[in-house]
User: Fold these one by one.
Assistant:
Number 1:
Amino acid sequence: MSDVVNYVTDRNVGVITVDNPPVNALSQAVRQGLLDAIRVAASDKTEAVIIHCAGRTFIAGADIKEFGKPHAEPLLPDLLNEIEASEKIVVAALHGTALGGGFETALACHYRIALASAKVGLPEVKLGLLPGAGGTQRVPRLAGVEAGIDLMINGSPIPARSAAELGLVDRVVEDDLLGAARNYAAELLDRDAPVRRTSELPVADVDESVFAAASVAAGKRARGQTAPQRIIECVRNATSMPFAEGQSRERELFSESMQDPQSAALRHMFFAEREAAKIIGLERDTEIREVKSVGIIGGGTMGGGIAMSFANAGFSVTLVEINKEALTRGLSIIDRNYEGSVKRGKLSTDIAAECRGRIGGATDYAALADVDLVIEAVFEDPDLKKDIFAKLDKACKPGAILATNTSYQDVDAIAAATSRPQDVLGMHFFSPAHIMKLLEVVRADKTTDEVLATVMSLAKRIRKVAVVSGVCYGFIGNRMLEGYFREAQLCLVEGGTPESVDAAMFDWGMAMGPISVADLAGLDVGFKARQALPEAERGDPAANRVPDALVEMGRLGQKSGTGFYRYDAETRKRSPDAEVHEIIEREAAALGIERRSIAAQEIVNRLVFALVNEGIQILAEGIAQRPGDIDVVYVYGYGFPAWRGGPMHYADSIGLSTVLARIEEFRERFGEENWKPAPLLEKLVGEGRTLAAWAER
Ligand code: 3H9
């Protein structure tokens, strides 16, 4: 029938098969193929039709690559309305992930059967969109208003059985989906089941307050985002308008979302995340080493979290500490973390016990003789790290990959402490490592392609989003943070307060303000890192005055109960501290700074443009492969709002000339030391190009 949609008849049943790898996305060809097939089925001798998919999944949604291009007929909502209007029973047979427009296709069918392993969902919200092919109108008719709003605002897929409980799926089977779908169709015909059109079902009444409550909840959960509010409006329409009117309003709001810069940013993130996994210059078929067992050196918070990440993905893990006490302490932190995961409902007791059972301990490197990968996660002491790598070189088998979790140190120097620098690289996890998604993979000078490719594929197995970084102080993320934190501290002494600086960034969309982040990380961490550097490299002294003073007073941040804020011992809730305000004023006076009122916009511009400028420099130096990689680092590792697309996409979206103009203004006001535009930024503005265009070189 077509390359991507096939139609065959089997006695009295017509079977439509979509076959558009990799995920059966609804490209124009698929939509046309489905329309042709349903029209042929309408006029042949069959009595019922099954829609199913070849390959690994049912339709995973609209083809995101077509977004932003002119609409090509047939449009999905029209196609689905025609499927629903069929006079013959249409059964959708679901496997894999039936998502977005794919699940909407299923909802337009009259009955749905699914494999128990299938998941269904409407993830459009994650792309800054709403279900635009009748989903907002059909879901409330099947699952009710509250469950419907929840499904669409949450965006995460749910298992077939949960969908069946909600009324979104009619039958769940363990295997032989197509056989079961044929039997189901036969059964429906036998019992003269009606052509059950979802659009003709009523929507259960709900109190108006449900929508207000959902709107407030979405405002909190998805702070700053527009799509959830549009979804709620659509669902409210489903309760007050006839289907056709609700659907036409859904189309208008879908178009609005598509034009919204938030959706452009989130779609950019979707592709950036997948592109980051690809290493420029590396063959797709680069051989990778088998990794089954992992050794971790250091049982602190970081080492423990890394151990859990691997154990949770089925690897056997050996945690090595310097003595029995330290090992017991390390393993007990892991125990507590697993207990926490069970309490929060993230893992069942059985699964947690199974994962915990994969982690063993040792106090001797001899225990690492046979492991395939070792990750060193001790504190940031370069000599200690080199010493450990020299020992690992002796203890580990040939071919074992040796990785350091350092946040700042020179991975080339660490590799040089071994006789096998080709097997050494950085794996920089983010705390808490069993929860945070980001992994910076630091490619050292001599790291082989095979080792790099192995670690990138491992990252996927432990469900991390990996980004490759070259070697430099702080790699991509922490190096960019330096200017961001510097400006936060300068805004403080120039007239801000911890509260005003944090509020400016939080309201702009950051997960946490920079001052709270510093308190969470521990003020002593930055302090020690500064002390380890020659004085000339410690950064702007004006930016260090207040944090240094706090550390000297024993105010180390959350862990000591006081830092820039005061923390409740039980709840960890923070409150402002007048003493800190006094310290800030005192240090400002000592620096001869006349404090002034600083607007939130100035705070945002100074912090964000410092990030952007350094990011562009990192690109120019080839430390990051592409702008999207930096965006992935910031969204997954540093709480940058995904709906702003990461710092590089954000810079492109507001225009590089605007970014340069602000940086030049700051250079005038605050001096060249801190505000030197990246030469690549100046070049691109001169050429009228974007970072995205530059990346396509
Ligand atoms: C929508 O449906 C709007 C409608 O409501 C209304 C319309 C009017 N399109 O993730 P993977 C590519 S909005 C195009 O690595 P996995 C992906 O880029 C859409 N391409 O695999 C990658 O390509 P490459 C709602 C897509 O097994 C390859 O497929 N749907 C699409 O880890 C493999 O992807 C969604 O938002 C797409 N829709 O996960 C679902 N999806 O190899 C988005 C994937 O060149 N997709 N690709 O890098 C997903 O969540 C995951 O891809 C999925 C598979 C779970 C399906």
Number 2:
Amino acid sequence: MRWVAPSIRVRLTGWYSLVLFLMLAVYASATYLAVRHEFFEQLEDQLHDDFESAEGFLVPTADGHIAWATERHHDPDEDEDRGIDVWAADGQPIYRSGASAALPPVALPAATAAPRYESLTAHARQWRTLTGTTLVGGRSVVMRVSRSEDRLRAQVGEILVVLALGLPLVVALAAVGGYLLARRALTPIDHLAKEARRITADRLHERLSILNPNDEIGRLTAVINDTYARLEASFEQLRRFTADASHELRTPLTVIRGIGEVSLKDTRTAAEYQDGIGSMLEEVDRLTNLVDTLLRLSYGDAGTVRLTPEPIDLAALAREVTASLAILAEEQDQRLEVDASEPVEATVDRLVLREALTNVVDNAIKYSPKGSAIHIRVSADGDRAVLAVIDEGPGIAVEHRGRIFDRFFRIDEGRSRDRGGTGLGLAIARWAVEVNGGRISVESAASGGSTFRITLPRSPRKGENV
Ligand code: ADP
């Protein structure tokens, strides 16, 4: 059978109980040892008192001996748990109480020896004793006072039982309390999971309810809600993109179908068929171009495009682009000029940036009137390198400026399409600039003319700190 990890509340309770058990066990052991030590110390104090009071019962007799003055003391024989034994210096017993008679005789200490405590066992009873010497009427005697440890051991044993039985009981109670507490603390998570399960792909606009925005669960919920918002935005973008792409792909397909249908309707001359096939191929080229661009964008989105950044001279790149587009500008009698007073370098992927610049300059040619001028200005601005494409076209109205970099956005669809536009040129340009660590923006004067500005991190020139 596979082991299934228990729920957080069970694990929490388990750990909590274990730690509590260990802490209480250490605490209980320390308490037990301290109490036991204290009890035994008290017993020794009592023995010491017994020793001192017993000295008062020893009296010298007229015949030069020492006697036990029983009449001055209650009979210790009555006391089962206490004993007194006294020996003369030669080992002759002077007095032995009933309770301690079973204890072995004492090994006589030297007269100067310090009093000593020891534990003895007799008839399965344990005794604590204090043995010492004392002088009575100038004679040395050895005295041993003893007390049974039975009662004390019984008391200590009771304490041990209470501690040993109480410990599991306390831990069990704490575990129940801990479990209830953990359940209460984790209930909002169950609630959250239940709510989150409700939000499927087609209900992404819904959000989780936040009971308390200041606690941990509230903050977690806010993060999950943010994720839903981002997911929703991405879904929406994807949905729009798919709809736009399908629309764009359908137009050339409809045209191809239309040409085919018209061609098949009547018998045509070979030249007419050739014409029809030529038009179809033009639309196929358009389709191929669109699909290639879409693919490039999707690679860009997936981040699978591998860049090879290298320091490049932006003025040289601008000249290269104008040379490749010169033929298009010539057709419109437009002047394409590169203004670069100083060499400016940026570390970028050459081909990707070239594509961005080509798209922007191509737009300037497409949308500017015949006979106008287009300038590409290369300059440095602190640690930034700037490429500005300035045209004398119709300009871009303020309300469109924020959207012209969006995929498939066209201000005038018919005009763009007539000029071979797909509505993706600036979207690609923005991706190509941003992937190189730059930014692209547009400015337009009310009188017309647009300036597309590409700003890139500038490479430091030799010996220069940028
Ligand atoms: P398109 O393929 O239509 O050119 P783009 O993404 O390149 O698509 O451009 C989006 C729209 O921005 C164009 O349809 C056009 O209306 C407008 N636009 C782009 N560049 C210029 C420009 N230099 N002058 C005026 N309008 C422009």
Number 3:
Amino acid sequence: MTRKVLVTGGAGFLGSHLCDALLARGDDVLCVDNFFTGQRRNIAHLMGHERFEFLRHDITFPLYVEVDEIYNLACPASPVHYQFDPVQTTKTSVIGAINMLGLAKRTKAKILQASTSEVYGDPEIHPQVESYWGRVNPIGRRSCYDEGKRCAETLFFDYRRQHNTRIKVARIFNTYGPRMHPNDGRVVSNFIVQALAGAPITLYGEGRQTRSFCYVDDLIAALIALMDSGEDVTGPLNLGNPTEFTIADLAAQVLTLTGSTSQITYAPLPSDDPRQRKPDITLARQLLDWAPTTGLEAGLGRTIGYFRGVVGV
Ligand code: NAD
Ligand code: UDP
Ligand code: UDP
């Protein structure tokens, strides 16, 4: 029987790639999105596909459908967008998780939560391991996202303990690639769009903070492997690429690969911006037999190619 899979946030950056991958392996895909940060063009090529269906819906409201698996990705991911309406961000993470868990409980579907490295906050442990509980400000500008995602993890584990819901929790680290929103505000899309336009590259702080960037295809393969894993594999599981770069390194790479003559300008570091981030992916390697295979240069090359098409340079 064809698997019926619900992808919330399916018109977003990661969600649209996930829909592609699930359709390619023969699943029936129901994509749900309210287009807060998602784009029609991300799923335009899927409209008319016989196993694809789109539903415009906000997951903070109940949803009654019949499915076998749920990937819960709905939530703005860029700081600019999740801080635009912070109360809605918390509602999406918390009330959205309750609704999707209620749906999973009723249908006995497996459910995967797109959690985040932000649950570690500005970490004292480096690289971050799943057993680290994090260092998160509960009342700052990033809290709507960080605490919302932390509460969603709590809900997932309580639904498992209380109702035996089949859960999977992925802690996703910075992922980039084609179909990021050009005005998304995240560092990779910002730097590429700026470089291609010949506009100044906006480096926050001195650019010494670090991140570890994962190419989208690697991440999608991990999400599907986690969903397919044995029932005892609940996570939380770190998913990302452990190769760490400073943000200044990233700016230099983007300038080289685009051949841009953009200058670097410095802007203040946003509040609570984590100083360092790098996943320890030992558990994902062991449990999923997975590791990322795309390096930054190759991944940036493909992403730059996409943005050239979008911004027309
Ligand atoms: P994105 O903003 O491109 O996608 C999020 C999607 O969710 C959008 O299409 C948006 O319209 C939709 N959405 C938001 N609120 C909704 C609601 N209430 N109801 C229905 N749809 C809603 O971001 P992304 O990078 O694709 O992230 C997808 C998920 O992965 C998010 O949950 C995010 O927190 C998580 N994540 C992403 C990264 C990353 O680096 N890309 C890192 C960690 C976690
Ligand atoms: N829910 C949903 N779809 C379903 C089943 C439940 O959206 O198919 C929502 C429902 O509105 C409820 C939430 O999920 O608010 C949690 O459901 P649960 O059964 O856990 O709680 P209860 O309904 O007992 O409050
Ligand atoms: N950043 C930057 N310039 C930008 C956008 C982001 O220097 O135009 C920095 C930001 O301060 C952070 C890092 O790049 O240290 C990653 O930012 P992003 O918003 O992509 O993700 P997150 O902070 O959630 O990891």
Number 4:
Amino acid sequence: MGFKIKKIKAREVLDSRGTPTIEAELLTDSCCARAIVPSGASTGIHEALELRDNDRKRYNGKGVLKAAENVRSKIAKKIQGMDCRRQREIDSILIELDGTENKSRLGANAILGVSIAVCKAGAICSNMQLYGHVQKLCGSKKFMLPVPQMNILDGGAHVGAENDIQEYMIIPYDFKSFSECLRAGTETYYVVKNRIEKKYGYKAVSVTAEGGFIAPMDGVEERLEFLQSSIEEAGYGGKIKLALDCAASEFYDDKNKKYTISDKEYSVDELIDFYNGLAKKFSIISIEDGFAQDDWNGWKSFNKELGKKIQVVGDDLLVTNIARIRKALDEKACNALLLKANQIGTVTEAIDAAGISFKNKWNVVVSHRSGETEDSFIADLCVGISSNQCKFGAPARSERTTKYNRLLRIEEELGNKAGLARL
Ligand code: PGA
Ligand code: ZN
């Protein structure tokens, strides 16, 4: 088989928001592998840098021609001729070639596109499934299908609202298989859709970037009550729990150290009480980014108070960055990692971020971005690293369902060789 990288191409394509993104294409003598990079909206300030052209004449400045050129010239020159199975070696060359803390020279989008294409080529040339190849790269011994966190109602930055909790999710967990979880979650989504349409009219059921509905009801409690009763109506009471992604950096004021949700201001202690009250009243089992990205004291107190009862997930706090994960472990700031490969920029660093999290008994939630693509790499990543959960959005819009559908195929292929992760 031809494992040697012969050529690397890159082009500007569109993501699910119609925003340009990078597609990297890698050729060996025997295969061709492509990867498309996703993009966030409520992006953490510590994430690796997405290189954009800032040329207002094209795509409102969002073009990625410079990043594509970096792939074709600087990156291609360096890794052509290398063996595509040597992921770790190639990724460290990419990191070194960039030479900055946040991959701002070449662009994390350029680097990740190549890194994922290398990973896919490594699998194809080895005649392996992509998840199997990922498993080999990370040295994991088991396969597990993830429990899904499914986005149903959206607020905050994802719908253009200020001072608002961003995502209201359901976690179908008490089932025998991933496909049953997906079915229960999807049937609940239908119930939510019907109830919103009946109560708020047909205009209220258009979907957001991640496929959820723009929450038409005011207030956090009303939304959670709506979800809870929809779960009951769908016939899944007790088998589906709730989760929030607050994206609290979006409603934090660094100057007065206060959080604002709707019209109410909260200190750290008041916000902990608020979340605690919600967790007691509703069946919430996971809260992501309950505090702002650099409010370490807020995170520490929150994790101390609630970390034994619920999953405290770090997204903007950790940005899939090993140094920040280490700090969070030292400070006991959270107990789960949200893993987004484009926050850090290479497959190897994403795998290592998961590795250190597992080693410290954290859960790992592999996540999409609000700007996604038809690339289903993260589904294979999930199974390859044996992550506990996946966060791929609502069961709607093909850039989301392509990931769920890939997991269905993997589940079918693995049969009883892979169980469903436990919460
Ligand atoms: P983003 O949102 O992709 O817009 O950052 C997803 C999330 O916060 O989990
Ligand atoms: Zn998040």
